[in-house]
Amino acid sequence: MRDPYLILGLDPEADDDAVERAYHEGIRRCPPERDAERFAAIRAAYEQLRTHRDRLAHELFDTTPPDSGDVLEKAAPVGSPARPGRDVLEALLRGD
Amino acid sequence: MAKKLKRRKSRGGSGGSGQHEVATPALAAHAREALDGGHWRDAVAAFKELLKREARSDWRAALAEAYAGRAKQLADKGMLKEALAIWQNRAALDPDAPMPAGHAALLVRLGEVDAVIELVGGGAGALPKAQLEALRGHLAARFLGGDRALLERLSDDDPVRRHGEAALAALTAYCDHDDEALRAAMAQIPFRSPYRDWVQVLKALLRQPEAPAEAATLLSRIGDDSAFAPLRRAAQLSLLPQPDFLDATRTAAAGEVRMACMLRGWPPARIAVWEDMRRLGPDPAPRDMLRLLHRHAKVLGADWVRRKSLSLAAGGDDDGLHWLREAGSGHPNRFEQALLAAWTTEPHRDPWQALERWQLCAQLLEARWRQQQDPDTALRIALLLRRGDAVGNMLGDAEPSNDPDDFDRIAAAQLEASLTWDPHDRATWLRLIGYYRRGRRLKDARRLLEQAQARWPNDLPVLEAAMDIALDAGSFKKAAGLARQILAVDPINTGVRRRLVDAHLAHAHKQVDKGRTDLARKELAAALDWARDEATRKRLRQTTALLAVIDGDKDDIEALRADLPGGSLGLDERLELMLAADGLGLSQDDLARRLRLKKPAAAGRDDLAAALARLRTALDGDEDLSDGTLHTLGQALRRSPWRELSRTELETACDTLDRLDLGQAREAAATAALKRWRGEPVFELHRFEARYPFGFDGRSPKDLWNLEKALERAREQGDMRTAIRIQAILPWSSPFGGLPPFPPIPPEAIDFSDEANEQEDFDATREMIIDLIRALGPARAFKDLGAPAEVVRNMKDLERRLGRRLATEELIAFLEQAGSGSDPFADLLPPPAPRRGRAKGGPEDDDEDDFPSQLDLF
Fold it and tell me: Is a pLDDT exceeding 60 seen at residue B751?
């Protein structure tokens, strides 16, 4: 995932406080000793969106194309693990 | 239809006629090879042909095997009816043979269960036990898959029927999240049941969230041929880590992926997008991704899709707009078009174009702002106006040029304009103040500073900028006041004290020049008030004492002499004295004569090391060393005890002497080092460079030979830094990697009188210079090559005006056209020409090209 809004789980209208909160929540969930790569991504996302000026600059100058992770996360974030529906199970049992 | 018939006919015709031409043994070998290699279709065709020639039983068995393989292949592809036809062909080979499991499983899958039920119920004795169990497993899965009527057709004692209700109850309980009922239902299913794998799957699904490893073990017990294998594969897929999961889903069956995604908590919208995305492959092209975004615009959000579409289109350069239209994005508005154009400029690093394009973006937003005065739009305009400088660092080290059309002036104007839209960005104020200060345009710097101070009266960086401007203007009282203000907030700010000391010292020098040593003393006293570290205070006291030499005051000079026993100072102390004299503009000859100082010499290892350390400090602090000081030092250092220094100290010493341009001393140090570390590449390099400061002509073959050997040794030792530095000065070597184009030639073998080699030498030198320019840029390349300072300066100027990329291209084109000559720089030495700005029409300029003409370049 590359989009800093998606990495921090923020709306495009997020303000400074929301960015700050999302950042702290993110590093609490992914401290560097547990997931260094994810932590670095959260930190970088925060740097890109920290102030209102930063967010407008991101809007104007960011040319990073979306990757698969961005598109999927934007479509719908991953929820809690769920049991497949009966129709799905039955289809596989039939060999469809 | 006609097409189909035609295709079939041609395929059959060619295959048949081709095989007729082949002899039977060869065809048999080919058929066996195809069968062993799993090329089922070829194997089927070949064995059919063989059977036409001779009805051998081994060929018939082989054909049956090929049919089975082909049928399985088609079934895996989802071509179920075609697979069934193949199985039927196989059955026709031997109508009395029992139905293979694969055939039966396919019939179950297609819902044609009657034949299988008959086989399971009636012909049990004819089937091996394992096959019978497998068939029952397929019937069990079919029943759970929704074919409830199937049970009625089985005998009462058939395990599929007997355990069917419990298995179905388990399915219902799992889907209803009723785990208690699920466990109860599973308990009713015995181990030797057609539903055994079903129970394993359910147990794994139950354990999966808390104990994925345990779930994986349970799943591994289910075989690949099991009727429940699709469920096993889906559950295993869901257990993979994220990156592996995404990769694996690209090749897995759609139903299995759907189930795995659900198990991982993917909402339906995410699954739908992924099913579309996985068709694009692991690394989708921007154009395909753009289309995908638009297909899912409802889910992804129109604004997000539009913004990301622009990012993707930016990767398409000129095709970007076409991609957007093609994907259904509609025609971008004028601002979006301008933004796209500006984005595509950035990677090319063309400062003119970048400034123009970002300004156009700002202008378009200004028009919008006039209609609706939105603060965010104002901020966007400011950001756009700052972008050219932010990316190109145009004002980073630049001094204001005199030409208002030069890009640093345009960038500065854009930055100033940005402050009217967003005056709260302190960094921009300070950047502009620094830019004007560097060019001594204090009026402009002060104008901006006043506005910044009004906004941030007690801000440290602004106060420091104010102090620097006051010092630049010689307003020491004002600077001192500002320094006190800064030190009140930040008492350990040594930089402020240092700047004040330096400013007072500089002013003292000016007063000495004017013959006002009384005022110079005052300046030095003021400097002493600010200095805190003992080294600086000592230096200031020494400088004050030297004023006596300038004044010619005999008593004071005598007192000073008394402090210098016998005039024999150590090199370090003498250097300090020389630097103090330099600070006052006192010549070294006068200093030595009036204080009756002997020629300086290092008193030993420690003295030499201390003097070198002081020299490094002077260089790092940009202290100016007069020619007299350098000359005196150079003489002293040539006779220094270099052998007593360690290897690291000698290496550092050579670098320091290189920075000071003290070639003879550097050569002496390197030679001393080479006596201890024979052939050491880094010292060979220093000695060579010191011996041939201009790098081009008159090198002795022996020295070149030694350097070539040093290059080889540096490569062997993995000292790439030294290797690259040596390569850069060798005329025949490729500067960046690889072996030289021809092996080193011993000096005795070289005939330097051969004039026929001149053109080759020139070409090789030119190629090397071009390679170096391409890699390092013109200024750095020419500096490394030891070009005259004027050429290096011109290169820097050229880079600043055109940008490094364009300057490099222009220069290479020029060099490639240059004719043969002994000195490639000869053509580059500058005739008098305008140095800055865009090419302008002058009495000799006919064209209006944006780039300077060749003469203007230099």
Answer: no
Which of B255, B300, B379 lies at the smallest CB-CB distance from A91? Answer: B255
ipTM above 0.90, yes or no: yes
The set of residues, in sequence order, having a beta carbon less than 8 Å from that of B446 and lying 6+ positions away, is B469
Q: Are B857 and B835 in contact (CB under 8 A)?
A: no
CA torsion sign for A38, A41, A47, A50 is: negative
Set of chain A residues whose Cβ sits within 8 Å of the Cβ of B311:
62-66
Q: Which helix (H) or strand (E) holds B659?
A: helix B647-660
Q: How far apart are CA B388 and CA B350, in angstroms?
A: 10
The predicted pLDDT at position B214 comes to: 93
Q: What is the pLDDT of residues B812-846, one digit of tens each?
A: 877 776 654 444 444 454 443 333 433 333 333 33
Q: Which of A86-90, B18-22, B107-111 has the lowest mean pLDDT?
A: B18-22
Distance from CA of B307 to the nearest CA of A (A): 8
Interchain contact A87–B (C-beta under 8 A): no
Kind and range of the H or E run holding B156: none
Q: Is the pLDDT of residue B639 over 90?
A: no
Helix (H) / strand (E) containing B560? helix B554-562
Angle B445-B451-B457 from CA coordinates, rounded to 5°: 110
Name the residue facing B300 among A75, A77, A89 (closest C-beta).
Answer: A75
The whole-angstrom separation of Cα B371 and Cα B688 is 69
pTM of the model: 0.63
Domains and CATH numbers, chain A: 4-78 (1.10.287.110)
One DSSP character per residue, B576-621 reads HHHHHHHHHT--HHHHHHHHTPPPP---SHHHHHHHHHHHHHHHHT
Interhelix angle B129-144/A86-94, nearest 10 degrees: 150
Single-letter amino acid, residue B576: E
Q: What is the pLDDT of residue B797?
A: 76
Render pLDDT for B792-804 as a digit per residue (tens, 0 to 9): 777 877 777 777 7
CB-based contact, B273 to chain A, within 8 Å: yes
Q: The tokens 């320019």 sit on which residue?
A: B773
Query: Residue B847: pLDDT above 70?
Result: no
Q: How far apart are CA B130 and CA B120, in angstroms?
A: 12
Residue indicated by tokens 């303000």:
A15
Query: Exposed, middle or buried: residue B467 (CB in 10 Å: 0-12, 13-18, 19+)?
Result: buried
B residues 107-136 closer than 8 Å to A (CB): 108-109
DSSP state of B783: H
- The model's pLDDT over B204-245, given as tens digits with 9 standing for 90+, comes to 999 988 899 999 999 999 988 888 999 999 999 999 987 788
Report the amino acid identity of residue B177.
Answer: H
* Alpha helices in B457-493, H assignment, sequence order: 460-472, 476-489
Question: CA-nearest residue of chain A to B293?
Answer: A71
Measured between CA atoms, the residue of chain A closest to residue B142 is A94
Strand residue runs (E) in B728-813: none
Which residues of B, range 727-766, sit inside 8 Å of A by Cβ? none
8 Å CB contact of B145 and A95: yes
Rg (CA), chain B: 44
pLDDT at B8 over 60: no
| Beta strand spans in B180-266 (E) | none
Do A95 and B109 make contact, defined as CB atoms within 8 angstroms? yes
Q: Please enumerate in sequence order all residues whose Cβ is within 8 A of that of B849, keeping only pairs 6 or more positions apart, or say none.
A: B839
Q: Which residue has the higher pLDDT, B491 or B462?
A: B462
Determine whether the interchain pair A65/B277 forms a contact, defined as Cβ–Cβ distance below 8 Å: no
Task: Report the Cα–Cα distance between both ends of chain B, in Å, rounded.
Answer: 76
> B789 to chain A nearest CA, in Å?
40
Query: In this complex, do A83 and B293 lie within 8 Å of one another by their Cβ atoms?
Result: no
